[in-house]
Amino acid sequence: MKALDVDQTIMARRREIVAALRAIIPGEAVIDAEIGRRPYESDGFTAYANLPLVVVLPSTTAELQAVLRYCYANAIKVVPRGAGTSLSGGALPLQDGVLISMMKFNKIKEIDFENRCAVVEPGVTNAAISRAVDHRGFYYAPDPSSQIACSIGGNVAENSGGVHCLKYGLTTNNVLGVEMALMDGEIVRLGGAFLDAEGYDFLSLVVGSEGMLGVVTEVTVRLLRKPESARALMIAFDSSEAGGACVADVIAAGIIPGGMEMMDRPAIHAAEDFVHAGYPRDAEAMLIVELDGPPVEVNHLVGLVEAIALKRGATQCRISNSEAERLAFWAGRKAAFPAVGRLSPDYLCMDGTIPRKQLPRVLAGIAELSEKHKLRVANVFHAGDGNLHPLILYDANKPGELQAAEDFGSDILRLCVEVGGVLTGEHGVGVEKRDLMPVMFNEIDLDQQIGIKCAFDEKMLLNPGKMFPTLHRCAEMGRMHVHQGQLPFPELPRF
User: Fold this and answer.
1) Which residue among 415, 435, 455 closes a domain?
2) What positions belong to coiled-coil segments (predicted)?
């Protein structure tokens, strides 16, 4: 990965910048000492780390605005950060940039059960919203595996999903509005506690923008009624290809499960050793399929899914008969990432998305790539919507293994694009997939996207070095092309 050039002028002004920030936010909210900055040197994508110039923890919108205005006036780069659980390096700090942690913005400001929404600050954790509304039978649908720790602001930045996103959508489908600060400190509101807004849909543009357009200060989320009932099936197969084919058959039958997850043999064993959920150790692949809704409907759909699985050669099919058993089925899947960490000193968690019908082909391709790169892989993914999470196992202490793991991951993502998929489903591009963007987008596509960034951040100070392999200056985006001495549209008058 090519690193950004460090602005030595900014580095030379470090003491001055720290002093100015302390004048804006007094006390311990400006972290200057190296030992205090170390916890912020990377996010969940730990293969890369940078020590930030300084860390700032504003606790009010006014403080955030003042910090942004100072950085804007002095051309200082800024990296917004939530809980730091991002798996693509989206919150990787810059040596010559201010890292702004939003975790002091941690209040649930309003819960409106009548309109089925809640207004929360970006530092509120994902799971905290569901806990706050559970007593009235509501919940917040997106549920990333890191939901006990990840922040709503980070979810907005990366358009996070989770095991139930197949039926209930990702963050973009469950956020009604945001308030955010632009790089110059201006506050803008997009959407709100209503179903739709007039004009351009800027809200959908901001969700998934990876902190490159503004810093979110408030989020209005959609609340859903908890389903009347839910049952889960744990289905074992003697091959990943058979499991993938079963996924395609279930969706083709018009059944949309609340969740549909798949794990291969290495992941099954790791999760079972970690959680003891009763997973089938002799299976090569396992599906967890959850159906929710009215009990009569759920029982009917459970029977249909069981029949489809058996037709596809399922070797075992267990159906939950209690809430405790259903939660036990999910416990291993929710803990799969830390569980796989017991198999290897390090791993890369990839995030590509493919058409469901391509699951058997891609899983076979990943197995071939594992042989090619001589690295093990454990597959854990959201099978229902084709969002793959291959976990590439490596040891960073062995020379060349990190590079081999990155090459392996790049090949997986190229394969995803080749079969009609995309580079990411919910983790974002960050620095991890940045240099692969030309695999999916041509130069015109990328210029259009950079043009949008210029409209929000003309100085290119917000989270630079992420998403785009080459970030043109905004002035360059408006350049006029001269071909063989001729300007475009020579017949038009020019002034």
Assistant:
1) 435
2) none
Q: What is the pLDDT of residues 169-187, one digit of tens each?
A: 999 999 999 999 999 999 9
Domain boundary among 286, 308, 338: 338
Confidence (pLDDT) at 493: 44
> pLDDT tens digits, residue range 17-65?
999 999 999 889 999 999 999 999 999 999 999 999 999 999 999 999 9
In a domain, 243, yes or no: yes
| Co-location of 12 and 44 in the same domain | yes
- The answer on 329 and 252 residing in a single domain is yes
- State residue 482's pLDDT score: 40
pLDDT tens-digit readout, 260-280:
999 999 999 999 999 999 999
Strand partners for 125: 151
Specify the pLDDT at position 1.
63
* 207 and 123 inside one domain: yes
Tell me the pTM: 0.91
The reply to whether 468 falls in a domain is no
Q: Is residue 196 part of a domain?
A: yes
Question: Is residue 472, in this structure, part of any structural domain at all?
Answer: no
| Residue 82 domain boundaries | 8-101
Structure tokens at 386: 């084709």
One domain, residues 221 and 257: no
Tokens found for residue 16 = 């001055």
Are residue 211 and residue 121 in the same domain, yes or no?
A: yes
322 with 405, same domain: the answer is no
pLDDT tens per residue across span 340-362: 988 999 999 999 999 988 988 99
CATH of the domain at 420: 3.30.70.2740
